[in-house]
Design brief:
Order of helices and strands: HEEHHEEEEEEEHEE
Structural class: alpha+beta
Number of strands: 11
Radius of gyration: 21 Å
Length: about 180
Amino acid sequence: MKERYQIESNSETFSFKPFHHHRSKLKWYVLAILFFGGLSVYYYNNKPMNELFLIISITFAIITTWFFFKEILFYIPVKYIFDRSTNQVYQSTLFVSKSSIMTFDEIVIFQSSEMGSWQYKIGKKKSQFIKSYEISEYFSEKSNNEKLLSFERELLNKIQQIITKPSSTIQSNSIGSTSTN
């Protein structure tokens, strides 16, 4: 779990990257781009072939390239930092090094569902459905989901602990688990 979300923890801060595990999908995007790009070149060089195949392969190559860059530029670099010394949650991205998104007093952690799966999000009280931030991957409706149990045990509990308790009661050992005095 620590590697999957790139969890970093000390006595004052807790940070993680909710989309870091998406890096494993990048190789499939590259393979799809190469495949559809190769098909496009093939259909372009064979003029008697139907132009519809050329248009379809170029379209798929463009769409796959779009999703590839969206993952690299906007999802994978996102990092949330819970800073106990300032009682703030910060978001760090590829383009903005650190921006405050809310205080600990404003945080609401809730579940959001879409098309048979759901995920955890954080948002400001009374406006969490207008502007919210994804903090987990999507989970299926299965009740025995090991990824869900691991996320709740190692990440969600730590977030709830750091936003609700004073910094003097939170201690972290060398492997990132917590204990209270």
